[in-house]
Design goal:
Length: about 150
């Protein structure tokens, strides 16, 4: 799984002119699912993302997590995180999970976030969405379970 996590002062997602998710201070997480991902990667990524301490403390050091700042979470599915741009000018998305697995693990990720105490606002899997955010810092991190997890996959 892959995620782009941005520290924001606010973020929202709109579908067909209707705002379906909105947060104040917290994390905007763009989430992509790969074809070999399982619940294991999903749980690992949710725990890693929600546990990051990237908010500034009283000394200006990135030392505080979501809980310490009463932060919120907005999660938006983004299969294009698996876009392959090696050849030509049109990205290939064959490295992304299929619709069924992608939707299943996206919804599982949302459930795990809630289980961990951060029920997320979210978009709608597969929808054409407009995402707005006010980046804070800016602080933006790339999380990829293929690079982060200590144990080899299957």
């Amino acid at each position: 799984m892959r995620a782009i996590l941005t520290r924001v002062t606010s973020a929202s997602v709109t579908i067909d002119g209707e705002c379906v998710g909105r947060i104040g201070r917290g994390f905007l997480i763009l989430l992509g699912v790969g074809p070999n991902d399982t619940e294991r990667e999903c749980r690992y990524l949710a725990e890693k993302a929600l546990g990051l301490r990237i908010f500034e403390d009283e000394n200006g050091k990135m030392n505080l997590g979501l809980d310490a700042v009463d932060g919120q979470v907005l999660v938006v599915s983004q299969f294009t995180l698996y876009g392959n741009c090696r050849k030509g000018r049109r990205p290939s998305f064959t490295d992304a999970a299929g619709l069924e697995l992608g939707k299943e693990l996206y919804e599982k990720f949302l459930a795990i976030c809630a289980e961990l105490g951060h029920p997320p606002q979210h978009g709608r899997f597969g929808a054409d969405m407009k995402v707005a955010s006010v980046n804070d810092g800016p602080v933006t991190l790339i999380l990829d379970t293929d690079q982060l997890m200590d144990t080899p996959r299957r």
